[in-house]
Amino acid sequence: MRESRFPIVMLGLALLFLVGPFVVVFISAFSGDRTLAFPPSSFSLQWFAKVLTVEAFQASFVTSLWLGVLSTLLALLMGIPVAYALARYQVPGAEVIRVILTSPLILPALMVGLALLRYFVLIGNNSISIGLLIGHTALLLPYAVRVVSASLANLPRDIEDAAMSLGANRLQTFFRVVLPNIRGGVAAASVLAFITSFNQVPVSLFLTGPGVSTLPIQMLLYMEYTYDPTIAALSTLLILFSILFVLLTERLLGISKYV
Amino acid sequence: MRVWLGWLALVLVLSVGLAQQRTLTVSGFGLNQNLIDKNITRPFEARCNCKIVWEVGNNADRLAKLAARKDNPNVDVALLGDYFAQLAANQGLLERLDTSKLSNLNELYDFAKNPLGGNFAVAFTTYAISIAYRTDKITTPITSWRDLWRPELKGRIALPNITTTQGPPVVWLVNRAFGGTDTNVNPGFERLSALKANVVTYYNQSAQLAGLFAQEEVWAAPVGRFAWGNLLATGKPLAWARLSEGQAGVSNVAVLVKGSRNQELAYQFIDFIISREVQTAQANDLVDSPVNRNVRVSADKAAQLTYGLQQIASLRTVDPDYIIKVRDAWIQRWNREVAR
Amino acid sequence: MLSQSPARLAAWILLSPALLFVAVFFLLPVVALLLESFHVGQTYGLNNYLAFFADDFNREVYWRTLWISLLVTLVSALVCYPAAYAVLKINPRWRGLIIGLIILPLMTSPVARTYTWLVVLGREGIVNKSLIETGLLQEPLRILFTEWAVFIGLLQLMMPLMLLSLVSAMENLPKDVVPAARSLGASEGQVFWRVILPLTREGLVVGGTLVFTGCVTAYVTPALLGGPRVTMLATLLYQKAGVTVDYAAAAVISVVMLLTTLLVNFLLRGRAAKTARAA
Predict the structure, then answer these.
(1) By CB neighbour count within 10 A (0-12 exposed, 13-18 middle, 19+ buried), where does C50 fall?
(2) What are the tens digits of pLDDT across the range A217-235?
């Protein structure tokens, strides 16, 4: 029986559409011209050099790294206990709890940013950086709960029962038995959470101020002011990082299961 | 667990460390920021032994931020277009300047010393608004605002959005060019509405224009002189139109934000940017046209700037009070009739 | 019962930090914003909403957001069904690479991804240049700053979500249904409509909801590719809050956004449930 080629052709087109533009940006990034044009008339590495010298990028890159690391840690610190409690205890109203904790994913992120700016920063008179950290943490919490829950579901309860029958208490069992066994899930959750935070725009959009800004927001700002291939070079670097991440995590963790 | 606590401690130390440094927060335009850093930020930081933190964006965005943070300001000095500064003053966001603390004030042209009245501001540059256009694509020179309606410009011009500093002055000038008056802006709006077919986009930042010209999206656009250096850097053949209706003039001013906790530094900063050395450096880099009468630049540079009392006097200044009075209505009307 | 209460206590100790955090720092501000959208002078009412929809500019923005989002959802479903089917039929050796290529855009900064379209779609961009060189066009097409640019940008941004949802739905298809249907003489079209589609509806609903919600709430794409001429709900929201400091209007827009996505989510789920029952 002859299968039609139509599905394969559609897949090819879809992939071309998804990844093809990246190739164009790669090539533009090596442009030797003064402004962005494709194809470039000459080639150079000057725009990569420029990326490294733009002060706004350096400062916001550091902010984004810190923000990503801290909000991921906070989300895991709060999310792992939740996933464990929901998996191992019969909690009344577990469904409601799940809905509350995933609400940051359902609400438009712009709304979250605006709400935090208006009530937490302006009316509550708190610092923008803390507002930014809170917004990101809330956004990552659902990922942490979901991914860790999924890997807890795959962990047979028998080992825990065995550990406890050997005299370990709950806490010891958790740290000695459960945590080592779900570390793949925790690692996957961290990677997903960090990337989500690092690329986040709408929540950060309202939560920037003098001296406090994330890399994506600075990129948006820079694009409004300059039309040289610097952003192409920076985008290329970011895309390369993503490729590295995807390769590593897919190989180590099989992250596509969790996306 | 201990590792996490370590991280948190590090963050606390970092944030406390930052808070202790003496910093001056300046709200600025962001255009040519690298040149501004060279001419202003670094020399000033070296002199004051402090750090300047910039908040950049267009006037409307930054005014909104000032207003939102009225009770707890996080900006010390703001650089704004004249009527945006007037809006800020009307909203009670500004401190009156004690001009005795500005040693360079007397070097400025008279109009720059107290442009809003009430000593709310000092102008640090003034510029003309005209039309920049591609000389290779548009062979008959543009000499009037009416030329934007030429059919050959279909899909080839960009207009400043009404919320930008250049927006209302351009509406005002176009309205005048088509026979309107300050009390009757129907001719202007009707013609602008009919211009839609020629407009690629409405820009929110003058800086976007360089990109639009470079990428061949746009052949002509009304723009402030301060963006001219940026446009020339695209390498495209461009000309600055000499309009028969005359050019509009707008000033950019420095203001002190009410509630600033760094007033002393703020005065030093304002005094610094109107000094002869800074104004000369900014003029030579085509960042801002000078208003310090002691600035001398070569004829070459002068031709690219709004330079000298004679040229400045020829500009038709738009009254900030008038723009403020009509702005809300114009924004409404623009959104309804023009920008869609 | 008594032996349960320490366990219950333990569960609440584990749950409370996250619940408290979300309640205090997240739900509280959001609820305050919700209330503000109904706030009129000293009382509450629908006036802000009525005023918002009375302005025909706002209505135009709403319809534009709605149709672009629906079109993106529809087109991505049409493209991704056969594509997802192909992913499963492909040599397993290549599958990892293909999945990697689908995930890659999801892991990349949306700013970088949207920026690529500025390079590709411009008048001097590669699309226009190749169309002119092949003689298909005389004059370059104006794509940037039109609704089509926003459509293309959103489609690329959201398609991986649909594709992954459908791939995982199809992975759960019983292995032998397609060959069984084929051996009974069903044509390829019949296999799709009668077998694959009903069995993967859940994936379509999940993918559709993700894509539609993503489109309605996306900020970067309409801001960069649309500009002021193609205002969408998200860019209007930013304008109201960030430029005109009209928080009531911004609150109204965010609630309208939320309700729209919830409604479409609800409709999709309802349809899926109905057809599942019918089948």
Answers:
(1) exposed
(2) 999 988 877 777 889 899 9
pLDDT digits (tens, 9 = 90+) for C232-271: 999 999 988 887 788 999 999 999 999 999 999 889 887 7
Is there a contact between C126 and A24 (Cβ–Cβ < 8 Å)?
Answer: yes
C102 at A interface, C-beta within 8 A: yes
pTM of the full structure: 0.89
Two tokens, residue B17: 């460390």
Which helix (H) or strand (E) segment holds residue B80: the answer is strand B77-81
User: Three-state SS for B26?
Assistant: strand
Domains, chain A, with CATH or none = 54-257 (1.10.3720.10)
Three-state helix/strand/coil letters over A73-126: HHHHHHHHHHHHHHHHCCCCCHHHHHHHHHHHHHCCHHHHHHHHHHHHHHHCCC
Q: How far is C124 from chain B (nearest CA, A)?
A: 6
Nearest-angstrom CA–CA distance, C123 and C140: 6
A neighbours by CB contacts (3+ pairs under 8 Å): B, C
Q: Classify burial at A165, counting beta carbons within 10 Å of its beta carbon; exposed 0-12, middle 13-18, buried 19 or more.
A: exposed
Best of A74, A256, A257, A258 to substitute, by most chain C Cβ atoms within 10 angstroms, is A256
Q: Can you list the residues of chain A whose pLDDT is less than 50? A: 1
Model pLDDT for residues B118-132, shown as the tens digit of each residue? 999 999 999 999 999
Here the ipTM equals 0.89
φ, ψ of residue B254 to 5 degrees: the values are -105, 135
- Phi, psi dihedral angles at B133 (to 5 degrees): -150, 160
Residue C3 reports pLDDT greater than 70: no
Q: Which two tokens stand for residue A238?
A: 């970011």
- Would you say residue C1 has pLDDT above 50? no
Interface touch A24/C120, C-beta < 8 Å: yes
DSSP code for A42? S
